[in-house]
Amino acid sequence: MRPRVLLHACCGPCSIECVRSLREEGFEPTLYWYNPNIRPEAEYGARLSSLRAFAEDAGAPLILGGDYGEPFEFAEGDGRCPSCYSGRLSSAARAAAEGGFPSLCATLLISPYQDHPAVAAVGERAAARFGVEFLYRDFRPLFREGQRRARELGLYRQKYCGCGEK
């Protein structure tokens, strides 16, 4: 039996190569959607639709952890991204623990636009708090291939960070 990992997913395109890579390592990823940071509602819906399409195509289970409009607090200034990572990865770590997943990973680790060390640090803290392992992977070398495959699959590809700040 392949070890299960809960993969926090921000969208379909960022999930493609993360899922492939984790499967190549012997893991069986389950996608987890919790992204109340994404604004406006049309953008939220487009990203969720692309993730659903990818999950179905890849035969990957998908857990929905929240809905649009859920309150989401951002810190100001330099703390904005880490506070966003913290809220999302804490929800994923809680879901991993409750679902019996031994580990947690995040598609945020594929983006060259995210603060990679901050994602890793926040993920480690969230996982430790809920008694699961944070499965750190530097997926950034796979980013362009994931984007190419997303175009090939006709998946929606967003133009900005969910909060619109990056």
Gist?
The chain has helices at about 10-25, 40-60, 80-100, 115-130, 145-155, and strands at about 5-10, 30-35, 60-65, 105, 135.
**How large is the count of helical segments?**
5
Biggest β-sheet strands, sense, barrel: 5 strands, parallel
The total number of structural domains is 1
Strand-pairing-aware structural class: alpha/beta
Query: Helix-strand pattern, N to C?
Result: EHEHEHEHEH
Q: Find the count of extended strands (DSSP E, 2+ residues).
A: 5
Q: What is the radius of gyration?
A: 14 Å
Average pLDDT metric = 92
| Strand percent estimate | 5-15%
Distance between the termini: 40 Å
Global morphology: globular
- Could you list the spans in which at least 5 consecutive residues all have pLDDT below 50? none
Account of the 3D structure:
A 5-stranded parallel beta sheet has the order 3-2-1-4-5, with helices on both faces. The chain starts with a strand and ends in a 13-residue tail after the last helix. The longest helix is centred in the middle third of the chain and has 20 residues, at 80-99. Helix content is 46%, strand content 12%. It is α/β, with parallel strands linked by helices and 166 residues long. It has 5 helices and 5 strands; from the N terminus they run βαβαβαβαβα. Helix 2 (41-58) links the parallel strand 2 and strand 3. The chain has one domain (4-33, 41-110, 135-153).
